[in-house]
Amino acid sequence: MATPLIRALRRIDLFSTLSDEATELIVGSGATISTPPGAAVITEGAPDSGLRVVLEGSRSVSAGGNGRGTVDGEYVGELSMIDGEPRSASLAAGPEGVTTFALPSMAFAPTLMGHPEIAEALLKTLCLRLRKVEAATVGH
């Protein structure tokens, strides 16, 4: 039986095609974290890496000084989780605080290496996102 966290993760494109077993492995590799109002969840330029999936609460995302809102189920940090480079965006808790699922790259790497279906799903999703960015760039 799928837990609320597994159901939440299965709603995002990165994990939507994964088997129950693979999703359970990911859940076992991460943790749910509550961040109080106004506190930083992740900071642009920071050397830490890992994925954060927004589960609930208020928050804002900014990159290069440009802010935007987020929706439940949105994620940040997927690039630094994969390539280990500094964070390209910041995520801050809003007035209500925010709850996220955190998946550190050090915990994700062994899961990824041992389960090629996870790597395949991740690659397909990131390729799709890259194609959307390219299409938007060409159109402007």
Automatic annotation (TrEMBL):
Question: Which InterPro entries does this chain map to?
Answer: cNMP-bd_CS (IPR018488), cNMP-bd_dom (IPR000595), cNMP-bd_dom_sf (IPR018490), RmlC-like_jellyroll (IPR014710)
Q: Where are the transmembrane segments?
A: none
User: Ranges for the Cyclic nucleotide-binding domain?
Assistant: 14-129
Q: Give a Pfam family name.
A: cNMP_binding
PROSITE patterns for this protein: CNMP_BINDING_2 (PS00889), CNMP_BINDING_3 (PS50042)
SUPFAM superfamilies registered for this protein in UniProt: cAMP-binding domain-like (SSF51206)
Domain of life, per UniProt, equals: Bacteria
Q: What name does the UniProt record give this protein?
A: Crp/Fnr family transcriptional regulator
